[in-house]
Amino acid sequence: MFIAALIAGLHYLGIMALAATLVAQVFTLRGDVSREAVQRLARVDLLYGMAAVLVLATGLLRLTTAYGRGPAFFMQNGVFHLKVTLFVIVALLSIVPTVRFLRWRRSALRAGQPVLPAAEDFRGTRRLVMAELHILFLIPFLAALMVRI
Fold it and tell me: Which region is the signal sequence (predicted)?
């Protein structure tokens, strides 16, 4: 019982960490294009990836009968499938910003004259991160609906 509660708590903390890291990315992408901003984005994105792994791992554990309601409850629930689909969409959307952050950081760390991204690249990436954040905010509402259907 204690382990199940611990896993559920870690799952919720992971979701909050996902949201927090996306908000940090949005605010960083809103500012000036600088070497420090590029490095901050790469560090925050690493935390985002770690939080996503935590959410996925604890979510899979919660699918089991040992730590959750069991697969029978989840597999027949359409809202659960929508929730997982939205999580996958957020994960897929996050690929482009992650690749950009890594490319920008590599470029910003070069010796000599670093090439920083254009302001329009920052804005475009911010739009993608905002899309991730908006979709992520739907998931807890679906979770609440899921247990009531």
Answer: none
First to last CA, the chain: 24
The answer on pLDDT for 98 being more than 90 is yes
DSSP code, position 85: H
Q: Please state whether 112 falls in left (phi above 0), alpha (psi between -120 and 50) or beta.
A: left
Query: C-alpha distances in angstroms, 8 versus 54, 61, 139?
Result: 11, 9, 15
Q: Which residue range(s) make up the domain with 140?
A: 2-146
Tokens of 3: 């382990």
Q: What is the pLDDT of residues 5-40, one digit of tens each?
A: 999 999 999 999 999 999 999 999 998 888 899 999
Euclidean distance between CA atoms 65 and 10, whole angstroms: 18
* Cα angle for residues 71, 48, 98 (degrees, 5° grid): 110
2/110 Cα distance (integer angstroms): 49
Number of structural domains in the chain? 1
pTM of the model: 0.91
Strands (E), 74-122: none
